[in-house]
């Protein structure tokens, strides 16, 4: 496993040791001086080398290590080999490098397998619940369980995570409970998001996971900015364990402008971040063949000067090892961004609003289900070590199904959040305009009780009355 390195880092290695941890204002001044000093060094070096009559290399500020050549050769991607895909296990669950092994204890591997199976069963049950009209929306993670569960298991609990919408396994691995999942899916009174988001848009301040947004790719620049803040925090508070930002997104999101802006600022500011791209073959209905001509998403990381690796997302051990190493690199030399392209195949539909068989053959999906997936591959490894068998499989699936259905039943019976949640959390105090809206809504609900059933909402009209009184 090897990452690609940026030549820009040589200047940071020379200059970074001169920085010492002081207060915020001094630190800001030091960082400004650092960037200015870097620019002066590059400019002066380029001028010095360029003035030499027999110079073999000119350190142009825009390409520091470019050598002269009298052969005009265009770079043609088709003549280069594709970036390799790192793996630890083959599709039969056999370890490829016996000496290195899997870096995972047997007990931990069993926990990872349990979480992946739990995620798979929950996806099946929730998909059916949506089809029955009991949920308004859902997205499954079939085929990508190993990416979410495996990467999350290799991160520190304090690392700040930005998800897209298919990272349910990240939440599960970090400790998000089945009750919390179900409360959010039903947007009930116990939902941590106060009923303000559509289903599968989870969030947890306790677990350091930012709330998911429907808007595609917006979490990527958010992660780059957060990582820069963490870089400053890591420098100014050396007594606290250093943290990084981790961002997940699909290859379709990498076609958005936000992706490129985020990659560039992360690379130029050398922030401690891991960008995890789930390349599952489809951006809703668009296959990768229609999304890009280049070598996947990994080639873009190298283009931005970032350490980059492509990984077999069906191999949870490869995912874990790559994430561990990426985190180490992200904290090296004060911080640097790392891009990991996790390769997978989206077995399920894009969402419950999608019919993927309208744009791909059913036989293609069934072939992937049968041939290789992260759950099956890990199970083969466990069975090879005599840690798993069919009896344990049946018992696990039966118990998990019951746990999920119990949580589902409880959440479905909970009341909806108080109506007052629609007005709180925007301003510190209710504005005059908001007060008029609250009073008008309260009046309508009182005058037309048959048209507006407020019994399912916690506290009913009383929540609006309390809000008005509290803000007097």
UniProtKB/TrEMBL annotation:
GO terms of molecular function: branched-chain 2-oxo acid dehydrogenase activity; metal ion binding
Where in or outside the cell it occurs: the entry states: Mitochondrion matrix
> Which cofactors are required for activity?
thiamine diphosphate
Q: What is its EC number?
A: 1.2.4.4
Q: What is this protein called?
A: 2-oxoisovalerate dehydrogenase subunit alpha
Q: Which residue intervals define the domain Dehydrogenase E1 component in the entry? A: 113-419
Query: Which cellular component, as a GO term, is one annotated location?
Result: mitochondrial matrix
Top-level taxonomic group: Eukaryota
Matching InterPro entries, A to Z?
A: Alpha-ketoacid_DH_E1_comp, DH_E1, THDP-binding
Which reaction does this chain catalyze? N(6)-[(R)-lipoyl]-L-lysyl-[protein] + 3-methyl-2-oxobutanoate + H(+) = N(6)-[(R)-S(8)-2-methylpropanoyldihydrolipoyl]-L-lysyl-[protein] + CO2
| Gene Ontology annotations of biological process type | branched-chain amino acid catabolic process
Signal peptide, first to last residue? none
The enzyme's first-digit EC class, named in words, is: oxidoreductase
Q: What is its main location?
A: mitochondrion
Question: Its biological function?
Answer: The branched-chain alpha-keto dehydrogenase complex catalyzes the overall conversion of alpha-keto acids to acyl-CoA and CO(2). It contains multiple copies of three enzymatic components: branched-chain alpha-keto acid decarboxylase (E1), lipoamide acyltransferase (E2) and lipoamide dehydrogenase (E3).
Q: Which family does it belong to?
A: Belongs to the BCKDHA family.
List UniProt keywords, sorted A-Z: Metal-binding, Mitochondrion, Oxidoreductase, Potassium, Thiamine pyrophosphate, Transit peptide
Taxonomic source organism: Lophiostoma macrostomum CBS 122681
Pfam families under this entry? E1_dh (PF00676)
């Amino acid at each position: 496993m090897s990452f690609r390195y940026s030549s820009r880092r040589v200047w940071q290695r020379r200059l970074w040791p001169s920085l010492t941890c002081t207060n915020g204002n001094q630190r800001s001044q030091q960082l400004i001086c650092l960037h200015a000093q870097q620019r002066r060094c590059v400019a002066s070096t380029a001028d010095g080398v360029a003035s030499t009559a027999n110079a073999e290399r000119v350190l142009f500020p825009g390409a520091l290590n470019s050598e002269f050549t009298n052969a005009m050769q265009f770079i043609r991607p088709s003549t280069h080999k594709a970036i390799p895909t790192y793996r630890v296990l083959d599709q039969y669950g056999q370890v490829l490098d016996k000496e290195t092994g899997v870096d995972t204890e047997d007990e931990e591997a069993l926990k990872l397998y349990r979480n992946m199976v739990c995620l798979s069963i929950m996806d099946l049950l929730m998909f059916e619940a949506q089809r029955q009209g009991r949920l308004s929306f859902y997205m499954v993670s079939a085929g990508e369980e190993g990416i979410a569960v495996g990467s999350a298991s290799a991160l520190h609990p304090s690392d700040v995570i930005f998800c897209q919408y298919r990272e349910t396994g990240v939440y599960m691995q970090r400790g998000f409970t089945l009750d919390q999942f179900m409360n959010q899916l039903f947007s009930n009174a116990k939902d941590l998001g106060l009923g303000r988001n559509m289903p599968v848009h989870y969030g947890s301040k306790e677990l350091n996971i930012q709330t998911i947004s429907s808007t595609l790719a917006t979490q990527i620049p958010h992660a780059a900015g957060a990582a820069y803040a963490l870089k400053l925090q890591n420098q100014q508070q050396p007594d606290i364990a250093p943290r990084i930002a981790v961002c997940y997104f699909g290859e379709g999101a990498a076609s958005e402008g936000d992706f490129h802006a985020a990659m560039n600022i992360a690379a130029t500011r050398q922030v401690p971040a891991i960008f995890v791209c789930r390349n599952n073959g489809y951006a809703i209905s668009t296959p990768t063949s229609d999304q890009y001509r280049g070598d996947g998403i990994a080639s873009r990381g190298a283009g931005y000067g970032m350490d980059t690796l492509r990984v077999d997302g069906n191999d949870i051990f490869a995912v874990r090892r790559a994430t561990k190493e990426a985190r180490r690199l992200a904290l090296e030399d004060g911080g640097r961004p790392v891009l990991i392209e996790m390769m997978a195949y989206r077995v399920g539909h894009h969402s419950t609003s999608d019919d993927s068989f309208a744009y791909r053959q059913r036989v293609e999906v069934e072939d992937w289900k049968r041939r290789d997936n992260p759950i099956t591959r890990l199970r083969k490894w466990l069975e090879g070590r005599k840690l798993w068998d069919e009896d344990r499989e049946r018992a696990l699936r039966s118990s998990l199904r019951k746990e999920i259905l119990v949580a589902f039943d409880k959440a479905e019976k909970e009341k909806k959040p108080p109506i007052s949640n629609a007005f709180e959390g925007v301003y510190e105090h209710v504005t005059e305009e908001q007060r008029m809206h609250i009073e008008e809504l309260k009046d309508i609900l009182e005058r037309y009780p048959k048209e507006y059933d407020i019994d399912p909402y916690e506290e009913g009209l009383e929540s609006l009355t309390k809000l008005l009184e509290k803000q007097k």
